[in-house]
Amino acid sequence: MKLFLLAIAIHVIFLLSIFYIHFQSPILQGLPVGREHDRPPADRLVLFVADGLRTESFLKHNLNRTRFLREVLLTQGVFGISNTRVPTESRPGHAALLGGVHEDPSAVFKGWKENPVEFDSVLNRSRVSYCWGSPDIIDMFSRGAVPGRVHTDTYASGDEIFAQSANTSLLDVWVFDRVRQFLAAESTKRDVLSTTKVIIFLHLLGLDTAGHVHKPYSELFTENLLTVDQGIASIVELIEQSTGHDGRTAYVFTSDHGMTDKGSHGSGNPFETETPFLAWGAGLRHWNRTGIEAVDLRQNIVSFLELDGNSIPVHQINQADVAPLMSAILGIAVPKNNLGTLPHHLLNVSEEYAAWAMSNNADQLLEQYLHWQREAERKTLQSLAPTEQKNFKTMIENFVAQIESSTEANEFVKVQKLCHMLMHLSLEAIRYFQRYHQPELFVALTLTMLGWLLLLAKETFTTPSLATHTSSVGYSQLVALMAVLVAACVVVLNIAQRTPPVTLLYFLVPIALWGYIAAHWREYTHLVRLKTVIYCLGFVIVVETLVLAFMDRRLLAPLLWLHCVLVGACLYRVKQSGTQFPWPIFWRWFICNTLLAGFPLIPNVDRDNSNVYLLILSIIAWTVTNIVILKRGTLSSFLTVANILLQLLQAFNLLYIISAIESSQSVPQWSRTSCWVFSGTFRATAGDSHRTMVEPICSFDSTGTSDTAAREHHDCGSYAGVI
Predict the structure, then answer these.
(1) Residue 489, exposed/middle/buried by CB under 10 A (0-12, 13-18, 19+)?
(2) Is the Cβ–Cβ distance between 106 and 127 less than 8 Å?
(3) Out of 36-45, 322-331, 571-580, least confident range
(4) Tell me: the pLDDT tens digits for 459-515?
(5) Under the phi-then-psi rule, with left for phi > 0, alpha for psi from -120 to 50, and beta for the rest, what region is 133?
(6) What element of type H or E holds 128?
(7) CA pair distance 339, 720, nearest whole angstrom
(8) What is the pTM of this model?
């Protein structure tokens, strides 16, 4: 029982360590608001976010599916690829686009539906902003904003339908219609479009829904993309007419994340992380005026897009860089928690204004560094501060002094270069402080894991014949005293350094664990044997293979065959006890594992290459097999007949589901409910017969994904996890 309780405690510590080390919040409280500029290059900015649009889908067919955006790119726009970060979901993507911050990782525990910590955004920094789209995205920016500054209008969450028959374009049509009504109102022209620092944000969810349901290469996805292009053209035309073509409007078109061919997103596949970025209008430079000389210190141009005989430079930016770019265009303060750097080569402004914008971004990042630096300087033993921390402080102070002197001398180009270097140095310092305790925590957790494995090995391989004499009482007491002294020193040192209590816990656990092992070291001597070492190495290899199988599932095949070998060894031990070797059981096990080992080796099944007839045949074969087993089972006649009837009804229901999916119809609720009813019934009756192989099958589409899951999960949880 003691070992069981210790196992629970150790594994809870391991589990929590993942979140504490890797899931630290990037959002700081109490940061000051940055500066604003009275004469920005644009009075208003319109942001179009095509949810789920990857760069490949945008550029496909020579951009002929987006005629308006294609013309904009050729005549007045600047194009680039916005690189997102994992997880490639809509909430983190929009947080990066509008706030320049990678959303608090704890939002994953809320299904990407709520803000665990409120963060600043360009919408909140503007004078006024108006937003339309999905409630899961739009509402995240209205919470915690200055009252009356962020105005939102969303459709009902029930309108977000993941059914084959759903018209995904209707979501975008709703947004465009509401924006047209807003722009057509006289009050809008008088009170909104005539003022400055205004943001209009359109969240277009249709492409994401179309990609999930119909896949990004489908005709229905293309139809939705045409709707988006036409809607953007109408909004731009209406704004230009309402403002009298005053040339004071900037436009940005981009996406929050991409999508794989299978209609999924969330990981780090290039299809998911590379999104299109197209900007044009006031304050933005046209691509034919950026030229090769626009390659700045980051070498941002890595490729060219060939379009109608033009070699259009493709700029590489980070998704978080869009927030400071929009701030510079409108002359507003950069969001307080922004971690992006201004791509100043995209701006069409004077050198003086570019220097101000770069300085504004650098000051905002500098405030975050200073916050971390002040926290570090509160520690009692400053002499123990790492050299790297001292170097950051010296270099940053040097850059700040140079920027101040260059600004006073009106050396604006030099100011831009210095600010560029200061921003990247500040980001490096911020990342350093965010991972301040990571090396020590990794060492502590590694020692804890090794100690726990050693303790388990002793408990597993110790037999009465191998038992040795325990250590003397005096020696054990001495080791315990030394462990207590070491723990006390660690506690005092960490309290003096204001180490977080959780970090202190991780430092104390390995001391206690290894203190116990050292006090009973004689009990571990028998582990230093060739046989035990081989067992341990085999265990490590198998576990590491399981970990690697998450990246390459083909590794599961040899593990299944290895499983056959282990089962054979166990059965051989049974034979040694005097029992006859059970060859029938072994061969059945071997054949089943061999068949299962083939599945990780075959490619994933997509909608386009799924074999419906094979699926139908498998359902029939599965039903017949279960009926035969039921007849040979030990259930009563009544239960046998009832189970056979349920098997036939389930088979009929599954065939009906396949028919509905193939005809692009939604699966009715009664059919999905029937699957769960059959599931519960089968499990209740199967317990009476160990030979019953009945296994519930939930409703699914031709990709092998449950219809209910397609509506409610789609790879990452609820619908909010998709968008």
Answers:
(1) exposed
(2) no
(3) 571-580
(4) 776 665 555 555 677 778 888 889 899 999 988 888 877 788 888 888 899 999 898
(5) left
(6) strand 128-133
(7) 24
(8) 0.78
Mean pLDDT over the full length of the chain: 83
The tokens for 424 are 């990247």
Q: What is the DSSP letter of 284?
A: B
In angstroms, how far apart are the furthest CA atoms of the chain? 98
Torsion sign over Cα 621, 623, 628, 630? positive
Residue 267's pLDDT is: 86
Q: Are 200 and 210 contacting, i.e. CB atoms less than 8 angstroms apart?
A: no
pLDDT-based confidence at residue 204 (cuts at 50, 70, 90): very high
Residue 341 CB burial class (10 angstroms; 0-12, 13-18, ≥19): buried
The two beta strands, 128-133 and 198-204, are parallel
**Rounded to an integer, what distance in angstroms lies between the CA atom of residue 507 and that of residue 372?**
23
CA distance 144 to 27: 14
Alpha helix stretches (DSSP H) within 215-269: 219-242
3-class DSSP assignment, residue 437: coil
CA atoms of 645 and 651, how far apart (whole Å): 10
Cβ neighbours around 116 below 10 Å, total: 15
Q: Which range has the worst mean pLDDT, 69-83, 150-164, 228-242?
A: 150-164
